[in-house]
Structure formats: structure tokens, C-alpha cells
Design brief:
By secondary structure, this protein is α+β, with helices and mostly antiparallel strands. It contains three helices and eight strands, in the order ββααβββαβββ.
Length: 137
């Protein structure tokens, strides 16, 4: 299981993280938080200091829509940091809702360059395009 980001040029290979076993053994909220932690840690290991993954961090104003993971482009001047990738962790039942959420984020935050869905029930990554199409990855 891996995902390639055209923006950062990194391949995040998550096959060794044991996410399949965790999904079978724990409740949904615990699984969700474990996946968030592992993906953020893996992204930071690959991309720091140019990019940073933040879980459930606000992109804009307080109480704005909060994606599960936001990857920020880091600049030396904090005012120029910008969200460039959003990731939603989902299940089969909520995949369409999370796809709509990501599409809305594209409209609100033009600096977002890529959005991804990770469905831990089917163990699949999908790219959500600005046009509304979802591509398997």
C-alpha cells in the first residue's frame, strides 16, 4: 500500500505499518487515531523540513472544516506556510461524505494541490480531483 504525491515527489509506503491487523482488532475511533498518528509520523519522516503533516489541524479560521491530515509547505517565514495536501481517513459508509468534504476544501483553500482518501476497510487510497473525479491509487 503506497501513495505517490506529485507535489512533494515522495512515495509513502504504508504496507509495513500493520494497518490491516489494527482494523480487524480495534474499534473505529481507535483505528482512526492510530492511522492518523502513523501516517503523520511516516510523512514527517519522509518530508521534514520542507513539509509537515498535522493531524486534525485547522486550515483556516477557527472552527473551519478540519481534514484528518494536512500537509503544510514550510517556509522560513511563518506567514508563507500554506496547506498543500489534505487527507481524509474513511470507511466504506463515509467515503462519499469525505469525498465531498475534500472537494469543498479545494474550493475554500486554493493552495491545496492534492487531496487523498484512505479507506481502511478496503485498504485503498484514492485521489480526489478538483473536478470531482476520484481516481484509484
Amino acid at each position: 500500500m503506497g501513495v505517490y504525491s506529485t507535489n512533494t515527489g515522495a512515495v509513502c509506503d504504508l504496507s509495513g505499518l500493520g494497518l490491516g491487523e489494527a482494523a480487524a482488532a480495534a474499534k473505529a475511533k481507535v483505528i482512526h487515531q492510530r492511522i492518523l498518528k502513523r501516517i503523520c509520523r511516516h510523512i514527517d519522516d519522509l518530508l521534514l523540513p520542507r513539509f509537515e503533516a498535522v493531524n486534525e489541524g485547522e486550515i483556516g479560521k477557527p472552527n473551519s472544516e478540519i481534514p484528518d491530515i494536512v500537509i503544510w509547505s514550510l517556509k522560513s517565514n511563518m506567514q508563507h506556510n500554506k496547506p498543500i495536501v489534505a487527507i481524509e481517513i474513511t470507511t466504506d459508509d463515509y467515503e462519499q461524505d469525505n469525498k465531498k468534504k475534500l472537494q469543498n476544501l479545494y474550493e475554500k483553500y486554493p493552495t491545496l494541490q492534492e487531496c487523498f482518501l484512505f479507506n481502511y476497510e478496503s485498504n485503498t487510497w484514492k485521489i480526489v480531483c478538483r473536478t470531482g473525479f476520484t481516481l484509484p491509487h
